[in-house]
Amino acid sequence: MFYTPDQGHGLPHNPFNAIVAPRPIGWISTRDAEGHDNLAPYSFFNAVAYVPPQVMFASTSAKPDRDGTKDSVANIRETGVFCVNIVGEALSDAMNRTSGPWPREVDEFTDAGIAKADCETIACSRVSEAPAALECRLTQIVELPGKANFVVFGEVTGIHMRDDCLRDGLFDPAAYRPLARMGYQDYTVVRDTISLKRPE
């Protein structure tokens, strides 16, 4: 099968995000200028640089009360900071709950029963039980072609790691089994890893 996106695929559901899979989930916590916390998952997320460490996530839809975007991007525009919380298998149900289209005044931490902790380098809450959390300062927001498509880039200013995820001096994903997005309504859990030595 071949199709061009402008002509359509003719399938029951768009296959694009199932083709680019699995995708790590950035569980983005933000705080608006008035001090209200927000938490939402984004599967267009990744690390993009080592030195200084930098990450990105993309928001691709909008809410009517947020001027062409969603709460996360709107809050980051106001405050210039955000936190990326890493999602393990044990937090999958809570993560899914925070993906709902809740009004801007809803605190997803409270709604989903998620414990908060304060960040150290930015004024923002983080998921206290997350295997890791990356405190970030905004570097730029890039508007992409299409409606409500924004990529948010941030420099990591602080890193939290749960002690039980450190094994022999390494941060071990097997300790928390990362959750990843497969497309449609499907997810996967990373349980198996292989090691490949780079050629000299």
Features:
Flavin_Rdtase-like_dom, FMN binding, oxidoreductase activity, acting on the CH-NH group of donors, NAD or NADP as acceptor, 200 residues, Split_barrel_FMN-bd, mainly beta, Flavin reductase family protein, 7-stranded antiparallel sheet, 14 strands
Please provide a brief summary of the model.
The chain is mainly β and 200 residues long. The protein has a single domain, classed as Pnp Oxidase, Chain A (Roll). The strands form 4 sheets. A 7-stranded antiparallel β-sheet has the order 3-2-6-9-10-5-4, covered by helices on one side. Strands 1-13-14 form a 3-stranded antiparallel β-sheet.
Q: Secondary-structure map with pairings?
A:
Blueprint: H1 16-19, E1 23-24, E2 26-31, E3 37-42, E4 45-49, E5 54-59, H2 71-79, E6 81-86, H3 92-97, H4 108-111, E7 116-118, E8 125-127, E9 132-143, E10 150-161, E11 166-167, E12 170-171, E13 179-183, E14 186-189
Antiparallel strand pairs: 1-13, 2-3, 2-6, 4-5, 5-10, 6-9, 7-8, 9-10, 11-12, 13-14
InterPro entries: Flavin_Rdtase-like_dom, Split_barrel_FMN-bd
Domain Flavin reductase like: 18-173
GO molecular function, one term: FMN binding
Structural summary, described in words:
It is a single chain. The chain has one domain (20-189): Pnp Oxidase, Chain A (Roll), CATH 2.30.110.10. The chain is built from four helices and 14 strands. The strands form four sheets. The protein has a seven-stranded antiparallel β-sheet, covered by helices on one side. Strands 1-13-14 form a three-stranded antiparallel β-sheet. Strands 7-8 form a two-stranded antiparallel sheet. Strand 7 (116-118) and strand 8 (125-127) form a beta hairpin. By secondary structure, it is mainly beta. The model has no long low-confidence stretch (mean pLDDT 96). Pfam families: Flavin_Reduct. Residues 18-173 form the Flavin reductase like domain. This is Flavin reductase family protein. GO terms for molecular function: FMN binding; oxidoreductase activity, acting on the CH-NH group of donors, NAD or NADP as acceptor.
